[in-house]
Specification:
- The structure holds two protein chains of two kinds.
- By secondary structure, chain A is α/β, with parallel strands linked by helices.
- Chain A contains nine helices and ten strands.
- Chain A has helices spanning 40-48, 70-77, 95-106, 111-124, 140-152, 170-187, 198-204, 231-237, 241-257; strands at residues 2-11, 14-24, 29-33, 55-60, 63-64, 80-83, 158-162, 190-195, 207-212, 215-220.
- Chain A has a six-stranded mixed beta sheet with strand order 6-7-8-3-9-10, with helices on both faces. In chain A, strands 2-1-4-5 form a four-stranded antiparallel beta sheet, with helices on one face.
- In chain A, helix 6 packs parallel to helix 7 (198-204).
- Chain B has one domain (26-247).
- The longest helix of chain B has 40 residues, at 78-117.
- Chain B starts with a helix and ends with a helix.
- By secondary structure, chain B is an all-alpha fold.
- In chain B, 84% of the residues lie in helices and 0% in strands.
- Chain B has helices at residues 2-21, 28-43, 47-69, 78-117, 120-127, 131-165, 173-181, 186-212, 218-247.
- The structure holds adenosine-5'-triphosphate (ATP) and magnesium ion.
- Residues 40-41, 85, 162-163 of chain A line the site of magnesium ion.
Chain lengths: 258, 248
């Protein structure tokens, strides 16, 4: 479980995050949604410690991240995995070496076991035949999957994904979403995903936080979102014609039931 | 005033970064692997350019000295003697390192800068790796280890170059050999080595600082790489004056 309390972040006099309060549950896929430029990436960077909040606190199961010592923070980081918006694979290493990297760095098990674990992670993301390719030689979707494999290699307790399906076709996006959903539930991970993809919201959003202009406007599940009574959220979710029609149908159905 | 404040800020950040670099590596096995790779990439791959440049500079110095100071009342071994002193004292350590600052410095700065803007360094930090230590320490140690070898090769190539001019009929091999041996002071060789090791540290650490702290995109990476070469060259020159005064 990760909890944010009164989180503020400004760059100079530009306030990007304003009083964010949110809860991210254990064993669930927690989504952060919002328009481009609303502050999702900045929020995630604050949570993982790549940026320091101007004020406010972040709790990782009772541990206050901002008041940890340097050493404790490094130890906590070994419980985190992160998938960046652009995958951020090490481009001088092959796919297998990328996935083995965290194991080589932090695991004391013998070489064979590390290779086995890396191969297992790769097979989990359905990438069995790309071991010796370099990141530059595989497609964007494959890179994202390698990034997932690398992030789960050390069995993290917290998994962060910044727009895991940006730039992917709808079908591949769904594959990635299902992967993240499956891994989260099987390993009981606290997963936080940044997205503005409506398929993900409806498909895997068990706990959704809606951010608008740096404020957390709404929190709930993908079932509740259909009936949410929030103008900004409605404008964002039902922006496209198709989804607007779904919403209208949903509302009519509800009226008939009453 | 502004530039002074600016350079002090850079100095502060540089020292801070070095503080993170000089630490016990998270995993020795990974450090050794990187260390060997960097020695190969920064050092071994520079041997070619060092040999070629030193050979020709040795030859040119020999010809110039002959042309300019050789006269009937000057012993004929002066040419060899002066060539040796120039190679040992300045060229093979300082000038060679200035040339390497261009090759190695831009290489390091653009590599680290690209890793920074593609978030590979963030990815390391998130894993709980000390990214400064993992990426920069092997580079510094690698070049510092290989630099004495490069200097030795440079001196040797320079002397070979000087011998090569004897085929053009200017000075004979035996005159040159006499000059090379005349009043040889071993300490001068060690001066060159000490200087080169210090320069190796300057070049790698300054370029790594420039690359590691890039913010922005490809334009900034390009700028960092130029800055790395300019700054480390100037610092090498300053260090040269200081070390020459100190050592000789
Ligand atoms: N380092 C920075 N310095 C100044 N402003 C920044 C910085 N990083 C982000 N911002 C500002 O913060 C705001 C939020 O940016 P952020 O990257 O979090 O958006 P986002 O919600 O992730 O958008 P997208 O969906 O397009 O990725 C933007 O207006 C951006 O200009
Ligand atoms: Mg973003």
């Amino acid at each position: 479980m990760i909890q944010l309390k009164h989180l503020y972040k400004s760059f100079g006099d530009k306030e990007v995050l304003k009083d964010i309060n949110a809860m991210f549950d254990n064993g669930k896929v927690n989504l952060i949604i919002g328009q481009s430029g609303s502050g999702k990436t900045v929020l995630m960077k604050n949570v993982v410690g790549l940026l320091t909040p101007t004020s406010g606190s972040i709790f990782y199961d009772e541990r206050d991240f901002c008041s940890l010592t340097k050493k404790e923070r490094i130890l906590l980081r070994r419980e985190m995995g992160m998938i960046f918006q652009n995958a951020a694979l090490f481009d001088s290493m092959t796919v297998l070496e990328n996935v083995m990297f965290p194991l080589n760095m932090f695991s004391d098990s013998p070489y064979e076991d590390r290779v086995k674990r890396a191969r297992f992670c790769l097979s989990r993301v359905n990438l069995d035949d790309a071991d010796n390719k370099f990141p530059g030689e595989i497609s964007g979707g494959m890179q994202k999957r390698v990034a997932i494999a690398r992030a789960i290699a050390l069995q993290p307790k917290y998994l962060f994904c910044d727009e895991p399906n940006s730039g992917l076709d709808p079908k591949t996006s769904i594959v990635i979403d299902e992967l993240i959903h499956g891994i989260t539930h099987e390993d009981n991970i606290t997963t936080i995903v940044n997205t503005h993809d409506m398929n993900s919201v409806m498909g895997i959003g068990e706990n959704i936080t809606f951010i608008c202009e740096g404020r957390a406007e709404w929190q709930g599940s993908n079932v509740e979102i259909m009936d949410a009574d929030n103008k900004k959220l409605e404008d964002f979710i039902f922006a496209s014609d198709i989804l607007r029609q779904v919403k209208i149908a949903h509302d009519q159905e509800k009226k008939q039931k009453q | 005033m502004l530039t002074l404040k600016n350079s002090l800020t850079h100095l502060g950040r540089y020292v801070q970064l070095m503080g993170r670099v000089v630490a016990q590596p998270d995993r020795m096995r990974m450090f050794y692997k990187q260390y060997v790779t960097e020695m190969f990439q920064l050092g071994y791959n520079s041997i070619g350019i060092v040999l070629i440049i030193s050979f020709f500079i040795g030859a040119v110095i020999c010809l110039q000295i002959k042309l300019n100071i050789q006269s009937p009342w000057m012993p004929r071994m002066v040419t060899g003697y002066t060539t040796r002193e120039i190679m040992l004292l300045e060229f093979s350590s300082s000038i060679m390192c200035l040339i390497l600052a261009g090759k190695v410095g831009s290489n390091i700065a653009s590599e680290l800068g690209t890793m920074r803007i593609t978030q590979q360094i963030d990815a390391l930090d998130i894993m709980g790796v000390n990214s400064a230590n993992y990426l920069i320490l092997p580079k510094i140690m690698g070049l510092m280890t290989i630099m004495p070898i490069l200097v030795t090769f440079s001196v040797a190539a320079g002397i070979l170059g000087a011998y090569a001019t004897s085929f053009m009929g200017t000075t004979t091999v035996s005159e040159l050999t006499e000059g090379f041996r005349y009043q040889f002071n071993q300490w001068f060789f060690w001066c060159g080595i000490i200087k080169a090791v210090v320069y190796a540290f300057i070049i790698t650490s300054v370029s790594a600082y420039k690359g590691y702290t890039v913010e922005g995109g490809s334009v900034e990476v390009g700028k960092a790489s130029t800055d790395a070469v300019v700054t480390s060259s100037i610092l090498v020159l300053f260090a040269d004056i200081f070390l020459t005064q100190l050592l000789t």
